[in-house]
Amino acid sequence: MLESNNTLAISQESGEDTATVGARSGVANLPGGAFFEGRWQTAEMTVEVRDPQDGSVVGWVCTSTPGDVKRAIAHIHRHLQVQDWPLRARREALEKAVLLLGEQSTRFSIIVAAESSKTINEAEREVRRCMETLRLSAAASEELAGATLGFDDSLAAGSKVGWYSRKPVGIVAAITPFNDPLNLVAHKLGPALIGGNGVVLKPSGRTPLSGLALVELLLEAGVPSGRIAAIVSGPGVSEALVTDERVDLISFTGGPATADRIAAAAGAKKILSELGGNNATIVCADADPVAAAAAIVAGAFGVAGQNCLSVQRVYVHTSLFEQVLEQVTAGTKALRTGPKLDRSTDIGPMISEAEARRVEEWVEEARSAGATVHAGGTRRGAFYEPTVLTDVFSRCRVIRDEVFGPVVSILPFIEVQDAIYEANNSEYGLQAGIFTQSIDVALALADKLHVGTVVINGTSDVRIDSMPFGGFKKSGVGREGVRHAVHEMTQPKNTIINLAEPRSDRQSLDGLIETTA
After folding, report:
1. What CATH number did the domain enclosing 409 receive?
2. Mean pLDDT throughout 265-270?
3. Within a domain: residue 490?
4. End of a domain among 417, 436, 456?
5. pLDDT band with cut points at 50, 70 and 90 for residue 372
6. Which of 244, 275, 306 delimits the end of a domain?
């Protein structure tokens, strides 16, 4: 393991099992506050990373400059020109990273939980998913094989033969958010690296430690130091990264406003963006109301609702409305909001008190417009209780925009066409859910929902790390999901051979046969 220069102190909390307390009895080492030019940078580690639960400092990262960004990119650019990294070595490095992450899963879970909104249970699930993402990235080496070019049926083919292979785009800028600080980093680094690219990571300044720790682990697993860099914070850093002409592709997960600014600044570059959702679930008249309600509660409040796949709007047929509302309300009230490292906690804090205040304002706006609060609706510092609303006016922000907080609105419908219209009546189009016992109804509705994924007898809160992930409208451009990201981060390169035409002065085949006989 590379030398570490940052430590994360962990204090014991109540309600933990013996294994967790034992794992947290010491300190978890963290790498330096940035990584570029093949080494950890520690000279300017002045940016504090704080636990949103209580504001305590859990680590520090570097204050970087646009000059640091240029140095990082220049180092990777030169490495790509002069140092080969064969596909087999890339695959083996990612496979080893999976094993190392399994060995260090407790450490990574603690880091994720300490700096983010995630409970320890949610953090452990994210580490397992990160292992899966890295495993899928290694397996995606098969996607780079290419194929022969079918010239036989072309008028211009002549005596040509050829093939294409997939080659790296070059340097990838990977910009990641706070809500999944480990696995969303892996979703960018894994495909970029297996594709043969160099990558500069800019993790969220709110949760950078998980991403830096993953970079450290990848280096330990065999990723060349000339293929990867990580820079977190500093004036002008983001602009320097996206505008540098040596960056060939930008992969960004965040909000639409930031994506617009990146696109305007970056110019003619390939940009992949996942920009969130305002996800709807439709509960039809023939649905199982108990199963639907349980899935809605599970899908609305994970990571304190700070999940692009969260269930935000639920349209329930009037015949089931009261029953579903009662079940959702009861399930929501049963959730426990509390300390992240207590295993009995269901909901941790939001990423900051300011974000919790924003959600509080949006709910109060809805309440003032006539909405009814059936559960939650209260804030305590950075904690916002999971909230269930009805009677919400359609122009309220909790319906119109992405809440990105623990709030779900339950709304009745009579005709299914109205539910489809309302579900589609959003600037976003990421994912949606349908509950029905009729396959005909399910497929008819799925066809009409203008979203990237429809989940039948489930909510929007489903992501399989191998599926093409992304949405329509303001929800993004391009697709993640490891194999699909590998295709986005590589490009086909043709090789064509002109075979020599037969010459009249050459010995005939019959002559050759006679001679050799």
Report:
1. 3.40.309.10
2. 92
3. no
4. 456
5. very high
6. 275
Question: Which residues are bridge partners to 6 per DSSP?
Answer: 30
Select which of 62, 130, 284, 308 is catalytic: 308
Decide: helix, strand or coil at residue 429.
Answer: strand
Cα(249)–Cα(438) distance, integer angstroms: 43
Residues 243, 284, single domain; the answer is no
Q: Residues, the chain, total?
A: 517
Q: Tell me, yes or no, whether 267 and 393 share the same domain.
A: no
Catalytic residue among 115, 122, 216, 274: 274
Residue 315 within a domain: yes
Phi, psi (rounded to 5 degrees) for 368: -65, -25
Q: Identify which of 451, 488, 476, 430 has the alpha carbon closest to the alpha carbon of residue 275.
A: 476
Contacts (Cβ under 8 Å, ≥6 apart) of 148: 161, 162, 163
**Domain containing 443: what range?**
279-456
Please state the domain count of the chain: 2
pTM for this predicted structure: 0.90
Q: Tell whether 318 is covered by a domain.
A: yes
**Token representation of residue 150:** 């079918």
Is residue 284 among the annotated active site residues?
Answer: no
**Range 292-295, long-range pairs (CB < 8 A, 24+ positions):** 292/316, 292/320, 292/324, 292/435, 293/323, 293/324, 293/327, 293/328, 293/331, 294/327, 294/331, 295/433, 295/435, 295/458, 295/459
Residue 324 lies in a domain: yes
> Helices 120-139 and 87-103: crossing angle, nearest 10°?
160
CB 315: neighbour CB atoms within 10 A? 22
Is 308 an annotated catalytic residue? yes
Three-state SS sequence of 177-216: CCCCCCHHHHHHHHHHHHCCCEEEEECCCCCHHHHHHHHH
Q: Per-residue pLDDT for 9 more than 50?
A: no
